Structure to design on (505 residues):
């Protein structure tokens, strides 16, 4: 806005404007108009820097870590430099409302302070520097800026300025040394960087500001035969290059996010394909399955192995870890289960066979699993576990819930692991509940888990429901867990899977 106002003022000033006190038109005086024309370039540069500073500040709010710090440092540098440009002009400062006696102090103070955010920006990319040089120079600059401001307040603006030029030249020398050291320490990475358009654009912008800034300080120190200085143009070139790189990486990041989103959707569809589309329909049995991953895909898995004569095998499994890696292993679990289909009536042999297939293929991961073989005509269930949470059995005759807990090793870690089997007598009205640990470990606001006791009590209180009703009731209670730290619509803290079995008459 300042640059626009200045341009309009310059363009609209009458050509024959008289000097103050003259008898001509009442427009801007010739000297003021000349000052405005001379300051127009600085106004345009200041406007561009201010806009970039505000944009960088906005981006810092949407980022974290070193990226946010680099954006904040860049925003501070751009805004402070823009203010210094305005304060260091003959016509812009009055237009901006800066009192004449204040502009020299503002210019001097900002000159002392400006290197600090630039040091912070560079350190987000190069770290503390070779031998901690950048960190030490930052400390020196902070000490100098504070002392220089005090000296100027006591003895007048610019009193401490003579030391500024050597410090700036030292800073550029340190930057060259650190960049050279970084390149020398990794020539392969340097060659790769040289092939990057972003690197070449950034190198050109950095060279422009470095050369013109060095020229400015050498000329101010009287070490050059000329006095011309175009440091603001060099800064604008650097900022434009930086803006190009930021925009390029932002667009590239958005493309990667879109590609990742598409890949996750593909993974979700693949995982949905490996889970049963429906529960088996067997006389005398009612079944319900619920699966709620904490992300797009998860590491829980369940499947059914129907056997002739109202008999059925059920597997529930939980892969360590979360996300895509766990989902890939869950696919392996399905393959391992399919390979053991002929052992559907032998829980111990089935789990042992799956373990042999998975051993050596999971790296550091493992799988907990539970397998139930329901023999409805015989009124029994054979149950085996591989480090899985206990099975809950509601006995209608006893009117109570009991835990069926078997200690055994998870799948995929020890090739010779054995899996004991227990037999459970079942009768019409009984309910069996298998689940993954995401159910009982669901945290409340204070970190208290939902717990085995609450789940057993919930089963006892809802035993008259169908397996579908029971499964829905459990999910409702987890979502409305009185101390829940999550809203009902939010994803669970872990993958959740339930298998409910009802023994019917």
């Amino acid at each position: 806005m300042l640059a626009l106002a200045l341009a309009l003022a310059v363009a609209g000033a009458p050509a024959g404007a008289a000097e103050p006190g003259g008898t001509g038109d009442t427009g801007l005086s010739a000297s003021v108009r000349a000052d405005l024309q001379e300051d127009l370039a600085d106004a345009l540069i200041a406007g561009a820097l201010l806009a970039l500073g505000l944009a960088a500040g906005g981006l810092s709010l949407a980022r974290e870590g070193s990226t946010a710090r680099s954006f904040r440092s860049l925003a501070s540098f751009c805004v402070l430099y823009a203010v210094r440009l305005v304060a260091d002009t003959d016509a812009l400062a009055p237009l901006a409302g800066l009192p004449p006696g204040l502009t020299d102090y503002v210019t001097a103070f900002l000159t002392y302070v400006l290197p600090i955010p630039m040091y912070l920006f560079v350190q987000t990319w190069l770290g503390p520097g070779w031998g901690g040089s950048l960190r030490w120079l930052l400390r020196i600059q902070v000490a100098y800026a504070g002392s220089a401001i005090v000296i100027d307040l006591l003895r007048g603006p610019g009193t401490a300025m003579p030391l500024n030029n050597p410090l700036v030249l030292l800073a550029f020398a340190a930057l060259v040394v650190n960049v050279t050291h970084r390149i020398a320490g990794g020539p392969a990475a340097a060659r790769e960087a040289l092939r990057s358009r972003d690197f070449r654009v950034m190198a050109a912008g950095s060279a422009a500001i470095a050369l013109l800034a060095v020229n400015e300080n050498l000329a101010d120190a009287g070490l050059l035969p000329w006095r011309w200085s175009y440091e603001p143009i060099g800064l604008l070139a650097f900022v434009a290059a930086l803006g190009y790189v930021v925009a390029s990486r932002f667009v590239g990041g958005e493309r990667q996010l879109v590609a990742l989103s598409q890949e996750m959707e593909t993974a979700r569809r693949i995982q949905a394909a490996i889970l049963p589309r429906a529960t088996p329909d067997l006389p005398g049995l009612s079944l319900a399955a619920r699966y709620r991953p904490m992300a797009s895909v998860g590491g829980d898995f369940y499947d059914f192995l129907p056997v002739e004569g109202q008999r059925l095998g059920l597997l529930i499994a939980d892969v360590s870890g979360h996300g895509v890696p766990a989902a890939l292993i869950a696919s392996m679990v399905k393959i391992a289960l399919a390979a053991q289909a002929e052992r559907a009536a032998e829980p111990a042999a089935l789990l042992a066979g799956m373990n042999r297939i998975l051993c050596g293929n999971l790296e550091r991961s493992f799988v907990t699993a539970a397998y139930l073989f329901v023999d409805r005509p015989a009124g029994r269930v054979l149950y085996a576990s591989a480090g899985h949470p206990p099975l809950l059995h509601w006995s209608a005759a006893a009117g109570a819930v009991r835990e069926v807990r078997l200690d055994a090793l998870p799948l995929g870690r020890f090739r010779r692991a054995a899996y004991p089997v227990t037999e459970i007598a079942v009768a019409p009205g009984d309910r069996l509940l298998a689940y993954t640990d995401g159910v009982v470990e669901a945290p409340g606001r204070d970190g208290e888990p939902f717990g085995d006791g609450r789940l057993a009590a919930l089963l006892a209180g809802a035993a008259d429901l169908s397996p579908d009703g029971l499964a829905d009731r459990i999910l409702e209670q987890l979502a409305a867990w009185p101390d829940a730290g999550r809203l009902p619509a939010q994803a669970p803290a872990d993958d959740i899977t339930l298998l409910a079995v009802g023994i019917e008459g």
User: Anything to note?
Assistant: Confidence is low (pLDDT under 50) at residues 1-27, 483-489.
